[in-house]
Amino acid sequence: MAVNGCLSGIIKSIININLTIVWHRLWTTFNLISKQDHKTKILENAIRRTRTFIPPLWPLNHLN
Q1: What are the Cα distances from residue 45, in Å, to 9, 33, 51?
Q2: Taking the CA of residue 46 as centre, how many other CA atoms within 13 Å lie in the half-sphere pointing to its CB?
Q3: CA-to-CA distance for 56 and 63, rounded, in angstroms?
Q4: Is the overall model pTM greater than 0.90, yes or no?
Q5: What does each of the 64 residues of the chain score in pLDDT, given as a tens digit?
Q6: 29 contacts: CB under 8 Å, gap ≥ 6
Q7: Cβ partners under 8 Å of residue 39, min gap 6
Q8: CB 41 within 8 Å of CB 35
Q9: Which of 2, 23, 29, 49 is the most exposed place for a label (fewest CB within 10 A)?
Q10: How far is residue 24's CA from residue 21's CA, in Å, rounded to a whole number?
Q11: For residues 44 and 38, what is the distance between their CA atoms, to the nearest angstrom?
Q12: Is 2:8 a contact under the CB 8 Å cutoff?
């Protein structure tokens, strides 16, 4: 029981660290966007980046 408790504690701490890193990145990018005058350009670039990542996943979905 002690080992399981320890492992779950480690896993929870790792998840919390990852969430805080993601939140920090989102917050910093949001602050940058709000400070910039060219908000639409930054948003368009972000959308393009996500679009470039999404297409490779489509063939994998069809294989499943």
Answers
A1: 38, 12, 10
A2: 11
A3: 12
A4: no
A5: 566 778 888 888 888 888 888 888 888 887 776 666 566 776 777 777 766 555 555 555 555 4
A6: 46
A7: 33
A8: no
A9: 2
A10: 5
A11: 10
A12: no
